[in-house]
Amino acid sequence: MITDKEFTLRLIRQLTQALEKLILDKPEESLMQKELDFDSLMKDIFKFDFKELSSKSKEEIIEIVNERQERDHKDYYEMLGNLFYYNGKGEKNNDFLDKGKTFYELYLQTSGIFALPIINRINEIAKN
């Protein structure tokens, strides 16, 4: 039987992969192509939509992640990094890009993974 935590983690990974494809300009038939699906995913994961999430400070969002199990933090940070990076680039929103950079850095710290695409995105944001 699937628990709520496992289901949420699966949703996070699904959203992360969909965003990664969009960031790399390789959108397939993905969840991100329909706003409704995107919003419902956000509500399933966070209990509110992206607009509400993006209005929160980095500290408030980190606090939300810290309420989750520690082993899941890396998945949340990777998804949040992709989420804010993708929306920041699309909307040319420096606040979103800054949040994306922060969450990518936290992802690298918590995962211990050397992820060159993530590092390149951090460097790209830092140049702006």
Explain what the structure shows.
26% of the residues are buried. The longest helix has 20 residues. The model has no long low-confidence stretch (mean pLDDT 87). Helix 1 crosses helix 2, helix 1 runs parallel beside helix 5 and helix 6 runs antiparallel to helix 7. The protein has 128 residues and is mostly helical.
Produce the secondary structure layout.
Elements: H1 4-23, H2 35-46, H3 50-54, H4 58-66, H5 73-91, H6 94-111, H7 116-127
Helix pairs in contact: 1-2, 1-5, 5-6, 6-7
Give the tags.
128 residues; mainly alpha; 7 helices; 74% helix
If you compute it from the alpha carbons, what radius of gyration comes out, rounded to the nearest whole angstrom?
14 Å
Strand content: under 5%
What is the makeup of the main sheet? none
Question: Mean pLDDT, as a whole number?
Answer: 87
> Uncertain spans, ≥5 residues at pLDDT below 50?
none
Order of helices and strands: HHHHHHH
Overall geometry comes to globular
| Distance linking N and C termini | 47 Å
Question: What is the strand tally?
Answer: 0
What fraction, in percent, of the residue positions are helical?
A: over 70%
Please sum up the structure shown.
The protein is mainly α and 128 residues long. Helix content is 74%, strand content 0%.
